[in-house]
Specification:
Oligomer: single chain
Shape: elongated
Strand order of the largest sheet: 23-24-25-26-1-29-28-27
Number of strands: 33
Helix content: 40-55%
Number of helices: 54
Largest sheet: 8 strands, mixed
Length: about 1500
């Protein structure tokens, strides 16, 4: 761009134009062309060396058909169709050719086939010489095609017509294709009008006929090759403009085939110029001039080329007369060749790689002064990515080091957030560029994967690259990575988004840019941008007129001096300062005003300290020293320049007051203009909206940065006021008036920029139906589904708002909406849009800052943009609270109350979208604070009641004029319900407590203002309801003590009892019933009610529930030392288990029996704590608790089905009205037996607690439960019954020792004839799957049955002395040949009286054993036993002989001895064991003889002694 050119505009990208999905349609192979050798034609066209693009504007309203041919994809022709009143199309057509294309195409309207659905014609030419004419339909119709239909293609091989030269240039118009050749001739093909075989389809235009041939001149002069061709239509005539390489310009009439003009052009500045290109503009009908532009490259001094503009005057009549105007305008190109050039009737537009230049025809001198230039998006992207300055990104770390000196761990995420935000800004973010940059880091994503990423996912992917590089721990390393990434991204952006061509609509003024992969428009600068970017001699009065200067010339000079000082401040701070300050504004809460003192510190002392510390640690001392010296140099330069500028400023203004007046005027100029228009909210989103939104963000960025620079200048003036002699009242004016003003301006533009650049949120899945219903879409509105747009990076918050700002100013404005806007229209729409954002539709001024924010919030809230609403309202609220005048904050109209109310609703909605942990708690606290503040704002009742429900806000539910206390009572109850609906009990509880504080004043007797909502409710009822809600919320939060406090605070008795019952139920369900029993809650005056509730629940609860209510009652009473009640409840629990056990399977039955045992044990233990005289329980006491207690009216009463069941239960208990310890212990013993039998897989159930049936003892013995069996016997049988049962048991035990017994039993009662059962063990319980082993199973002290018998016989023979006899008799009866164990025989032998000798003794004596031996034929054992005792008698000690000789001192069972003798004789007679029996008989005879002799001697001695 020229150094003297004035920047008047900048590029505005159309968002979404980089995300086109292409329908690829291939062209069938062309017909085989004739070979060059056969027809002598020249070779094909050279391959394309440059990109090409253009735009055809067709129809009204216009359709913009854009085509591109890329040199890196030379065989593809890309076509987009745009309409200004529609969105940018997401679909494009890509026609794939077999050969590479010549960089030329033409799209025009098909005048002959509109009715057939083919509205357009497309001309194209391949380098092989094949020309194509396509009859193009709507692009969407090619979705299912892969090959272009043959009936819609006209193919022409031009090489068949090349006889005299190769093609050097191509042009076309509707119905004609024109080729220029290297022999200077022009070939014309009426392609699209005539059939190729028709006469006159092709003809040549040559300049070798006429008079020249007669004179012989032309034949001697050579015709130079055609350099450029243009076909233009002037008043319905197709004119062919031909530029030859020697500078000759000829104009031909296409229809008459006659030459209209010929002239050889020359360069005035140089000889040997090369003519390159020709452009023809639209005819100026008023001046009858056709503008021409020719690009020539002089050989030496003008190496960059010159564009010469000519005027070709025309006169229409029977024959067109053309004359070259004498005036000429040369436009030197400073750097590089032009990318594209377009001419209109009054301007020439020159597109270069660094900008777009516009020149008025013949209104400026040849040096180019007065040219208007437009900046391209490359400059904006470079500025955003810190590519425009070498040190701008380095300043980020230095400034961040200053700001976060006390929290250095925040530096890395803060800087990363800056880069991420700027990288994803609309206009910077480009899908294809980012995808290619990912590939540089080996992150390969398919198109479907990449385009499915949301903005948050994109951020995560980028940050993952940073983490993979391992540089996330060092600020300098991290910054270097971001610099590298941004540089690569910018390089790819410039490559993939290179400018191709211009879109110029001279009729409507539209100026656009065709890039390689996107489309843009151009806009004019805002007035403030002219002041910032322009110079004092370039800016006209129309810009400064809006400043309201009193002395225009002087004030204007002062303003530019002030702007010069602002520029010094901006350069010293660098680009990083605004980036850091902007990012700090986005933090919640904002830390922006903590950043300002650090930025001011940079102006005063520089960044030396942070630079030195940072670079010594990261880069070393040498680099740190170099950086420090450079920083010192920059600081000295800034200080000197600022001092000189401020001195000159003061000299020019003479007083600082004058300077401050000018600054104040400038600050007022920064305020968005107020434009009052009528708006239509029913419009669709289109490209005009997209351009307006993007342009708004650009303007807002400039305004924000300008306001920030002014703020820093004012702060700097305050700090150095003494050095430059600023008076105290001027400093006060700066601090109290100007600084708040600039802060307000900065906040306003920051909000606007935020809305224009922040991506909309995706709708939550659960809100899909609600959002659809809220859109109110009908058939009259042409818009796509909102859910497809929301969440896309190219659909920002301002896009949502823009749908409410489309103006309807009349027919002309409606027509303009149908086309793409011109540069002035874009900036006007920006002004209207910013005015609407700031002031609303009416533009009325209010004392509240950003009064329109509530309306914006409602629109955004309507579409689920909760984060944006929170930021918007939080920012407005924060700024409002900083204002000095409280009246501007709390106005009587309640606007601030609406703001806080909406903010609270928005934060609540955010909480419902998945927040967890501390962040959720923080958000809930913020929402509570907002609602409390809203309730206290003056005028809030009326304002909030008038609030519309269209945005989806919860309805307040009350109307009418309310007093303050009544209003707060209703509002707090509404807030309580809202928090309750969102399951946020903590917030709901706060509002319930707040409402309780307002009840007395709102509903008291002095307050006669009762609304329809509280007319039927007393204060007690309302309090009861609120306390019940407090109780519920405390329960939800697990604050049980607070919930109990809410119960006892409730004045409504009925509500109190309901809450108490709910309290117990909830504690029971949550397993928190321990607090009922451990004394944490005193239950003052409520203990009986708690007991009743627990008893009521216990009677209606299943026995399997845990914890069981009866056990809870037991613990409850035990803690209160009510031992008998505790025993009663735990016994009822045991009784409940008794009926349940019969219905369960074996495994479950064992567990229930064990639990029942524990219950009985607890009941017994509790009764042991009672005085013996009162140690009894009455289970029927529970009947009064369960059936006769009165409950509140709302409590569930007993049903018809429950009452008989409870009655039958009580009737069953009447048979044992009172149970003492003995009854309980008896039941415990029987239950133990039942439990142990169940473990052994033996089913037995007793009915009652009296004497059990005898068979239970038999079962216990059979399964080896001996201890239990004896316990049952000793517990339930006495006297003879006891002896009888003991005999039965020992008979059974004895039989277990005789596995080889024969015959039926002859002793005791008959037992079950089944075999021995395996004893229960712990292993068996595990096998059965028991979870609780219960009491240990009894084990004998040995492993054999003999040892078991010995153990229990020794233990229980004292209860029945004949038990050894029973055992021995049983053994011998079972097996007559059995060998009695020694220990058993020893029992008989040891039981002798000390005063008698022989076989005398108690019931168990040797004589008994001797009798048993004789009875069961054990003659040998009997004889041996008798011999033992006779010999023992004979061999007594002398001391015992005296006693033996006493009367009746010796006794033997002589009768049994006689029986033994007889049995031996019988055996001898029978011949059984004769020898043995004879031997026994002899032994018996000898022993008896000896014994009788001894007895006779003793008798004689006794008689002698008696006689003496």
């Amino acid at each position: 761009m020229g150094s003297r050119s004035l920047l008047v505009g900048m590029e505005v990208p159309i968002l979404g134009s980089d995300s086109v999905k292409w329908f690829e349609v291939s062209v069938p192979s062309p017909s085989p062309p004739l070979s060059a050798a056969a027809n002598g034609s020249p070779s094909a066209l050279p391959p394309p060396s440059a990109d090409a693009a253009s735009c055809a504007i067709i129809g009204d309203p216009p359709h913009y058909l854009i085509w591109r041919i890329q040199k890196d994809r030379p065989n593809a022709l890309e076509i987009n169709e745009l309409c200004g009143y529609k969105e940018f199309p997401k679909i494009g057509l890509r026609i794939i050719f077999q050969d590479a294309l010549y960089p030329f195409a033409l799209i025009c309207k098909d005048e002959t086939s509109c009715a057939s659905g083919n509205p357009y014609l497309v001309y194209a030419l391949t380098i092989s010489g094949v020309a194509y004419l396509f009859k193009l339909k709507e692009i969407y119709s090619y979705a299912s095609c892969s090959v272009f239909p043959l009936n819609e293609i006209v193919e022409l091989n031009i090489q068949n017509y090349l006889h005299n030269g190769a093609i050097t240039a191509v042009a076309a118009a509707a119905g004609c294709l024109v080729t220029g050749r290297n022999d200077g001739s022009v070939g014309c093909f009426q392609l699209g009008i005539l059939d190729p075989s028709a006469p006159g389809f092709v003809y040549e235009l040559r300049d070798d006929a006429g008079l020249g041939r007669l004179w012989g001149l032309m034949s001697r002069r050579s015709i130079y090759p055609v350099q450029a061709l243009v076909v233009s239509e002037v008043h319905g005539k197709k004119l062919i403009f031909v530029l030859h390489s020697d500078g000759t310009l000829r104009v031909w009439d296409f229809l008459s085939r006659s030459r209209l003009f010929s002239n050889t052009l020359s360069m005035s500045t140089s000889t040997g110029a090369t003519f390159v290109s020709l452009w023809v503009g639209e005819a100026n009908n008023d001046a009858s001039v056709i503008p021409l532009a020719i690009l020539c490259k002089p050989s030496l001094e003008f190496s960059n080329g010159i564009i010469s503009v000519y005027g070709l005057r025309y006169c229409l009549g029977e024959r067109v007369i053309l004359l070259l105007d004498s005036s000429k305008q040369d436009i030197p190109l400073e750097e590089g060749a032009p990318v594209d050039v377009k001419l209109t009737s009054s301007k020439i537009w020159i597109l270069k790689e660094d900008g777009l230049i516009a020149h008025e025809f013949f209104n400026a001198p040849d040096n180019g002064e007065g040219a208007h230039c437009f900046s391209l998006q490359e400059a904006y992207v470079a500025d955003q990515l810190f590519q425009s300055s070498e040190h701008s990104s380095d300043d980020l770390v230095c400034l961040a080091q200053l700001i976060f000196s006390s929290a250095k761990d925040q530096i890395i995420p803060f800087i990363s957030s800056i880069f991420l935000r700027r990288l994803l800004l609309p206009g910077v973010h480009h899908n294809r560029v980012l995808q290619v940059t990912f590939q540089d880091y080996n992150k390969l994503l398919t198109d479907s994967e990449f385009f499915s990423l949301t903005v948050d996912r994109l951020k995560s992917e980028i940050l993952s690259l940073l983490e993979d590089e391992g540089v996330s721990q060092s600020p300098v390393s991290m910054l270097y990575w971001w610099k590298t990434f941004s540089a690569q991204y910018f390089r790819h952006w410039c490559e993939i988004n290179a400018p191709f061509g211009l879109i110029i609509d001279s009729t409507r003024g539209t100026v656009g840019l065709i890039r390689k992969s996107s489309i843009s428009l151009f806009r004019h600068l805002e007035d403030i941008e002219f002041l910032i970017y322009g110079s004092s001699d370039q800016i006209g009065d129309n810009v400064t007129s809006g400043l309201g200067f009193s002395d225009v010339d002087l004030d204007r000079e002062i303003l530019f001096e002030v702007l010069q000082c602002v520029s010094h401040v901006s350069q010293q701070l660098g680009k990083a300062s605004s980036a850091i300050f902007y990012e700090s504004l986005l933090c919640l809460p904002s830390i922006s005003y903590e950043v300002l003192p650090h930025l001011l510190k940079v102006l005063e002392i520089g960044r030396c300290s942070s630079v030195t510390t940072l670079h010594i640690a990261e880069l070393g001392a040498d680099v740190a020293l170099e950086k420090e010296l450079s920083e010192h140099k920059n600081l000295r330069k800034f200080s000197v320049e600022m001092f000189l500028s401020l001195h000159a400023l003061f000299n020019k203004a003479t007083t600082w007051g004058k300077v401050l007046d000018v600054i104040e005027s400038y600050l007022k100029f920064l305020v968005p203009r107020k434009i009052i228009k009528k708006f239509d909210s029913e419009v669709g989103f289109n490209m005009n909206n997209s351009a307006m939104v993007q342009a708004t963000s650009q303007v807002a960025k400039v305004m924000f940065e300008s306001a920030l620079d002014v703020l820093m200048l004012l702060s700097y003036l305050v700090n150095i006021g003494g050095q430059i002699h600023i008076l105290h009242h001027d400093i006060s004016r700066i601090q109290l008036e100007l600084v708040p003003m600039v802060q307000e301006n900065m906040t306003e533009w920051h909000i606007i920029h935020f809305l224009g650049t922040t991506t909309s949120e995706s709708p939550a899945a659960e809100d899909f139906s609600a959002q659809l219903s809220s859109l109110q879409i009908d058939n009259t509105i042409d818009r796509k589904s909102w859910n497809e747009k929301l969440g896309k990076w190219d659909f920002t918050l301002a896009c949502i708002l823009s749908l409410n700002t489309q103006s309807s100013f009349g027919d002309q404005s409606r027509l303009l909406v149908k086309c793409l806007p011109d540069p002035a229209n874009i900036i006007n729409s920006v002004r209207e849009f910013t005015s609407w954002i700031m002031w609303g539709r009416t533009g009325e001024e209010t004392s509240t800052f950003f009064s329109h924010s509530t309306e914006l919030a409602l629109i955004l809230l309507k579409h689920g943009q909760y984060n944006a609403v929170e930021f918007l309202l939080t920012t407005v609220d924060a700024h409002s609270r900083k204002e000095k005048i409280s009246g501007s904050i709390q106005s009587d109209d309640g606007e601030w109350g609406i703001l806080l109310h909406i903010l609270g609703c928005c934060i609540l909605a955010q909480v419902q979208r998945g927040l967890q942990g501390l962040l959720k708690e923080k958000k809930v606290s913020e929402a509570v604070r907002c609602f409390f503040r809203a309730s206290s704002v003056q005028g809030a009742p009326q304002a909030l009641q008038s609030l519309s429900n269209e945005a989806g806000l919860p309805h307040l539910g009350f109307t009418g004029c309310l007093l303050a206390a009544t209003w707060k009572l209703h509002y707090y109850q509404w807030a309580m319900q809202i928090f309750e609906q969102h399951n946020l009990s903590e917030g709901a509880c706060q509002f319930a407590l707040a409402a309780l504080e307002e009840v007395d004043e709102a509903l008291g007797p002095r307050n006669g203002n009762h609304t329809e909502n509280n007319a039927d409710e007393s204060a007690t009822t309302v309090k009861g309801r609120l306390w019940a809600n407090v109780f519920k919320f405390m329960l939800d939060l697990n604050y049980y003590y607070d919930a109990y406090c809410a119960i006892i605070s409730n004045p409504d008795e009925e509500s109190k009892y309901l809450c108490l019952r709910r309290f117990i139920i909830v504690l029971y369900e949550r397993g928190a019933v321990k607090i009922l029993c451990d004394g944490q809650i005193p239950f003052i005056g409520l203990a009986e009610k708690v007991e009743r509730e627990l008893a009521w629940k216990a009677a209606r609860s299943d026995v399997s529930v845990k914890p069981n209510p009866f056990k809870l009652l037991y613990a409850f009473e035990m803690y209160r030392h009510n031992w008998r009640k505790a025993s009663t409840y735990i016994y009822l629990y045991s009784a409940q288990l008794k009926s349940e056990a019969a219905l369960k399977d074996q495994q479950r039955r064992s567990l229930i029996l064990l639990e029942r045992l524990n219950g009985l044990s607890a009941a017994i233990n509790a009764l042991h704590l009672v005085h013996p005289a009162y140690a009894w329980i009455s289970p029927l006491v529970d009947e009064s608790l369960l059936l006769k207690e009165h409950y509140p009216s709302k409590k569930a009463r007993l049903t018809v089905h429950e009452q008989p069941a409870a009655g039958s239960y009580a009737q069953a208990q009447r048979s044992q009205c009172y149970l003492d310890l003995e009854n309980l212990e008896n039941e415990f013993v029987l239950t133990s037996a039942e439990y142990l039998l169940s473990l052994a897989n033996v089913n037995w159930t007793f009915t009652g607690n009296e004497k059990p049936p005898p068979d239970v003892v038999d079962m216990l013995i059979q399964v080896g439960l001996y201890d239990t069996a004896f316990t049952v016997i000793l517990r339930f049988w006495k006297d003879s019954e006891l002896k009888r049962e003991l005999e039965r048991v020992f008979v059974a035990l004895s039989l277990k020792c005789c596995p080889n017994r024969v015959g039926p039993l002859s002793v005791g009662n008959d037992l079950r004839p089944n075999g021995l059962l395996l004893t229960s063990s712990k292993d068996e319980v595990v096998i059965h799957g028991s979870n609780d082993l219960g009491p240990p199973v009894q084990q004998s002290k040995g492993n054999s049955q003999w040892e078991t018998l010995e153990l229990y016989l020794g233990r229980y023979k004292e209860f029945h002395l004949r038990l050894p006899v029973v055992v021995a008799e049983t053994l011998l009866s079972a097996d007559p040949q059995i060998e009695l164990p020694l220990w058993l025989v020893q029992i008989f032998k040891d039981v002798r009286r000390g005063s008698s000798f022989g076989m005398t003794g108690d019931e168990v004596n040797p004589a008994s054993l001797f009798c048993l031996f004789v009875d069961y034929g054990r003659c040998a054992e009997a004889t041996t036993l008798l011999l033992e005792y006779t010999e023992s008698l004979a061999s007594m000690r002398p001391a015992d002989i005296i006693r033996r000789k006493r009367p009746s001192a010796v006794w033997f069972p002589y009768t049994t001895v006689e029986r033994l003798w007889c049995k031996l004789e019988e055996l001898i007679r029978a011949g059984h064991m004769v020898d043995q029996c004879q031997k026994l008989k002899e032994l018996l005879r000898g022993a008896l003889t000896k014994h009788l002799n001894l007895m006779r001697v003793d008798s004689d001695d006794a008689q002698s002694s008696a006689a003496a």
